[in-house]
Request: fold
Amino acid sequence: MLKMNNISRIYQSDTIQTHALRDFSLNVGAGEFVAVTGPSGSGKSTFLNVAGLLDNFDKGQYELDGVSVQGLKDSELSRLRNEKIGFIFQNYNLIPDYSIFDNVDMPLRYRGFSSSERKRRVEQALEKVGLASRMKYLPSQLSGGQQQRVAIARALAGEPKILLADEPTGNLDSLMARQVMEILHDLNKEGATIIMVTHDPDQAREVNRNVQIIDGQLADFKIYAPLDRKSQSDDDNQSIASVVSKEVHKEEVDA
Amino acid sequence: MRNNSLLSYNILLAMQSFKRAKSLYFLIILTLSIGVGVLCANLALVNSMASDPIPEKSANLLHISMNTWPDVQPPDEPMHILRYRDAMRIAESDIPLRSAVFYASGVYARDIESTSMKRFDSRVRATTPGFFELADAPFAFGTAFEKSRGMEVVIGHELNQKIFAGKNSVGKTLELDGELLTIVGVLKPWIVRPLFYHPTEGRAFDLTDDIFAPLETAIDLGWSIHARSSSTDNYAGVNETRDRNVYYLQAWVELDDIAKKSALQSYLDNYSQQLKDAGEHPLAINNKLHNVNEWLKEAKVVDQKVLAFTLASILFLSVCIFNASSLLLSRFHAAKFEVGLRRAIGASNKHMMMQGLTESVLLGVFTGVIAVILSWFFLKISVQFLPRLANIAVLEPKLLVLGMFLALITAIASALYPLYRANRYTISAELK
Ligand SMILES: Nc1ncnc2c1ncn2[C@@H]1O[C@H](COP(=O)(O)OP(=O)(O)O)[C@@H](O)[C@H]1O
Ligand SMILES: [Mg+2]
Reply:
């Protein structure tokens, strides 16, 4: 699905050169849920931005879903971003004066769908994150967790090949973070490929693959042992998960 | 289909963007429309001054100036006003298709059937009958008079409105300075701008005349000369001018073929030479033929001050564009986040350019509407201060179109640099 080979990204300012990524190589297969961890400033966001074609790189090869991205024109890169990638930001990045519907609809506008097709997809995506009833709300009328779920719906609406999330729960309290994580796990179960940057070791432990970036390079050891979620018998975790689904269910009924 | 829906999306986004920053866009639109409005008002003046009032045949209509002054020091050389017998020499010639010899006068006019004694101060053109066809005067009712002598007149649309409420007044009798003349023709509204047949003496933007009377009759009746005249002889009234050295008539000819101009020139030159040989004047032979546009230029119809002001308004407009551009730059700065986000979710640079352009075009349309209103307003004001501009300060349809076009161009020009800037950020820079 995603193949990076010896990618380098160097930020050049007046006086200093920062090697945010150096000879970075990584393969992610279809259906994987990868957690990326590492110290602050180690290049996690840079990696995710390069992967999401939001930033360019100076050296190396990157192949996304079989397409080699080096040398592609802006219009081709934009199309890849639009059709293959769903990006989830730490700050949600919703447009404050657009309704929830319009926010989720945004990427579909560049796709040439008919308005009924767009409506179907927006509704479907919002349903997946349990917010189908809040379509007419403004982002400010929702909690942080709900806003992040809207952002996930926006990423999902285009039915992308891969979801990229940069600390998606970084601004959320633990309950809301839990809801977001549950949604990501559900999506992964349905077959979505997900790469998530996180600094929460518990979150990293939940997913089936961990990678660590240190100083712009892949660390070849693992701090966290991957856990098989299906065999997990942690009561605490279970109860939080059930609280979450009740919460989501409750919102559905509320509105 | 796809482009169509993106276009309507872009229009929707532009309207949202205007609503979001109302006062900013208000300022931008005001700045640009004042700039465009001033220029447009100015161009309206230039347009009125510089346009060809009779384009179908302006090259074939010639105004005649001659040198026949009997003294060593003529007032002008050659003179644009002619003596009766010189003018008649021109009217006699069969080289031109037709000719018009006339002078400007004025009378008080009243309908003899009217119970009111109110008399209307009317501008008169005392002319040979060739004038009407030569100048393409449009008739609403009746026809031109056929001879240079006869108690008949043609009246203009406005006078007909004033006296006869616009009805067909052919056959009615007017009392003109105590004389009774019958109306044989009524003109349609007739705008000649500039007034090519009499642009001298600052009359280039006068209206067409109220009354057209046969030349010989006007002379017989002694209707006084309301324009420049010069003479070396004394005379008590116009009726005495036919055989004296009184210069007051203007002559125009229409050629069916401009190649006949040289024949006409030698006809005039021969005549002047004969006079000179007979000792009637001491001057060099110097007869001039000017076509309509040459004659308007000779009469300095386009005011140099207005042209200087045009240059100033162009500079002013560019200042307005710089201003609007910096205002827009702050707007696009604020929109950096949105641009970054849209790029991140798959909008291409081109999409963003189109979105920005749609916004500028709409901005241009609003600006255009306000600019056109403002230029109308500026023209009104300038007429208040300079009443002599009254008949020039006219916004023709083509100027409305020009105003809209200028507004569009300026709005797009103002948005170009900010658009270019907004699209140059790295996408990830604004998104955390
Ligand atoms: N736009 C940029 N310009 C200059 N330096 C940058 C830029 N973005 C990131 N960096 C630098 O690159 C390094 C990696 O940053 P980042 O990928 O954001 O780290 P992380 O997400 O792991 O905290 C840091 O040293 C950071 O200061
Ligand atoms: Mg980061």
Notes: The longest strand of chain A covers residues 17-28. Chain A has one domain: 2-254. The pocket of magnesium ion (ligand 2) is lined by residues A 44-45 (CB under 6 Å). The interface with chain B takes residues 45, 49, 52, 54-56, 74-75, 77-79, 81-83, 87, 89-91, 93, 95, 97, 106-107, 109-112, 114-115, 154, 158 of chain A (CB under 8 Å).
